[in-house]
Amino acid sequence: MNDAIPQLLTYDETALDSAFAAVSDEVRSGASTLATPNAQEAFRLHWLGRKQGRLKLISEAWLKSAPAEARKPLGIRFNQLKQEIEAALEAPVAASGAAVVRGIDITLPGTVRQPGIAHPLLQTMEEIVRVFHHLGYSTNLGPQVESDFYNFEALNFPQNHPARDTQDTLQIANQGSKASRDRLLMRTHTSPVQIRTMVAQAPPIRIVIPGKVHRNDAADATHSPIFHQVEGLCVDTNITFSDLKGTLDHAMKALFGSGVKTRFFPSFFPFTEPSADVQISCIFCGGKGCRKCKHSGWIELLGCGMVDPAVFAAVTDERRKLGLDDDAYNPDRITGFAFGMGVERIAMIQHGISDIGQFYSGDMRFLEQFA
Ligand code: DAH
User: Fold this and answer.
1) 106-147: per-residue pLDDT in tens?
2) Is residue 165 scored above 80 in pLDDT?
3) Ligand 1: which residue has its CA nearest to atom 7?
4) Residue with the nearest Cα to atom 8 of ligand 1?
5) Where are the beta strands (DSSP E) in the chain?
């Protein structure tokens, strides 16, 4: 910028016009380079600085030797000049504001909005439930804080029976003053909802019960003290073990593909007689034998069996207490089957996951794979 103060020798209109036009030009050429806030501040100081500002220096120089009659037109023109300078300082702000409105930078990455998804365990749980909904089952839920009666006794686990040891139980504190059947605990399985359902309604029953269960187990690669099950119960006249086999064979094919085979292995549960473990042909090796199936060709997946008459008897007792003396669960007429499966185990086999802890880690790199 030109720092010398321009000379003004005469004060007639023409001389003022050309002198101010020259300064105006100077302002305009400076105003064309105001792209950054720093340049704007430098421009402002250069022109409007209180002590050394160019506007002040020029007006002092020109007013000093001005005749009295020239003072007014000079003052008016200096005011206009000041407005020009201020307008130049406003302009870049307005210009950049307009750019925001008009210009969209299509090279920017943009805002990615990730929609939430159901947790993989929930996805598997819903998938299992859906298979049974298609067979005409409905869903029932029950409480996680359960009484000893529903969790064990009514399911034919008597007090102190060794079968209770298979389900290491988390007891609710300070229950000592209650009758043993009323003591509260965290349910160890979803089976107590079988009892709750049968006490509340007469056959025919076809229900699935998804939910959370709790056991005092140490966490390792395949165990977690809190996990999920889907229980099933079918009670009616003429329900046989063949119905159980057909239903579960269909469900396993629906979940793991029509190529899987099922096999029923004798087992024991207090609330079913006979009881079985259901195994499917190994989906990793097709049954040839691999590490996943411990070289047996089969993977054990769930427990099942025909409802034990002792369970119907406990249900009938409860219904009588409620005034329902209706013989609805007379074992001479009524039979049923039940089954229960672990959701984590099924999800781990579906997705080839070897550490159950991944489900609970909240690690987005794991969870994102199920979106
Ligand atoms: N409640 C059993 C458990 O948690 C699983 C089970 C087995 C449920 C057999 C059933 C059944 O309904 O019939 O180990």
Assistant:
1) 888 888 888 899 999 999 999 999 999 999 999 999 999 999
2) yes
3) 303
4) 340
5) 138-139, 145-147, 184-186, 205-214, 226-237, 262-269, 272-281, 298-307, 334-342
